[in-house]
Amino acid sequence: MRACAALALSGRYAAMGRQAAAGLRAWADDRGVALRIEDDRSEPEESARLLAALAATADLAFGPYGSGPARAVAREMAGRAEVVWNHGGAAVPRTGARLVDVLGPAESYWRGLPAALEALGEGGAPVAVVRCPGGFGAAVAEGALRALPGGDRAATLDLDPADPGACAGAALKAGARWLVGGGRAEDDLALGRALAGTGLRAGLVVCGVGLAGEELGDAVAGWIGPAQWAPGGPPPPVALPPGADYPAAQALAAGLLAERAAELAGSPRPDALWDAARAMRATTFLGPYAVDGGGRQTAHAPLIVAWRGRGAGLRREVVWRPGGSERLPG
């Protein structure tokens, strides 16, 4: 079997794109799949160009990392027969492309926010929701607003990436104890640096991955983030490389699901694969999988992790899972 992907091996999404590449390679090596990965340089139009060319010569095609690149692929592939397994774009409108979501949508990232705050002893704390630039950031913020009871909303703020301190100041002025939202990793990290030492606690998308601890250190202690998968959870059936995080897990799960859909279809032919992908119901180490007729994920939502400890003991622990919350010792 032949598989292909366009992934960010360089550029702004490279840290996450390389993780995704590692996940796909782990699957392909284990299953004896011939995998070709091309570097889209974190540029959406390059993602679209590369994947459109690669998909025509492969049995299974995997999308890029990042909602911007994934949206460009969805536009380019509209009307095409090939199926694209989307493991890295959480905010991708339907265009008519045969795009199959593996990860939970951006609107679901903060579904468990009230329960997570309750588990941390912060139930009812005033929350300012930050809307980060781009479609992904807007969708994440919209989901947070939907999850919060009206009385817990201190403010809704827009992040200016050039002046993250202004957002932190506005949240403090509004009386917030928490600032929640998130978008691109570089924007979240800049906002995290601006929040350090202010007394505000943060819930940001980047706090779901180890990069937050690496870049922000002890400042993240007590902060929370959404994660499609957390190390230490259900072990994957194929070993991921040391240091793998949820972008690698998402990509590995995409490989497993695509492979299973091809088995159910009896062939990787696009029409049969598309029908099988939409009819399939499964559970992987990442969680449940089901999509609607347009390929949108309907079963999976991210869990929420909190950062605990200090220094070498800094770590993430799950405080909420879809379907129920989990309280952990402090």
Q: What is the average per-residue confidence, as pLDDT, rounded to a whole number?
A: 93
Order of helices and strands: EHEHEHEEHEHEHEHEHEHHEEEEE
What oligomeric state do the depicted chains represent? single chain
**Second-tier CATH architecture of the largest domain:** 3-Layer(aba) Sandwich
> What is the level 1 CATH name of the largest domain?
Alpha Beta
- How far apart the termini lie comes to 48 Å
Q: Fraction of residues in helices?
A: 25-40%
Tell me what portion of residues adopts beta-strand conformation. Answer: 15-25%
Q: Class by helix and strand content?
A: alpha/beta
Number of domains: 2
pLDDT < 50 runs, ≥5 residues = 324-330
Over the alpha carbons, how many angstroms does the gyration radius reach? Answer: 19 Å
What would you call the shape? Answer: globular
Can you say what the CATH homologous superfamily of the largest domain is?
A: Response regulator
In what order do the strands lie side by side in the largest sheet? 2-1-3-4-5
Largest sheet: 5 strands, parallel
CATH topology of the largest domain: Rossmann fold
Number of strands: 15
Number of helix segments?
A: 10
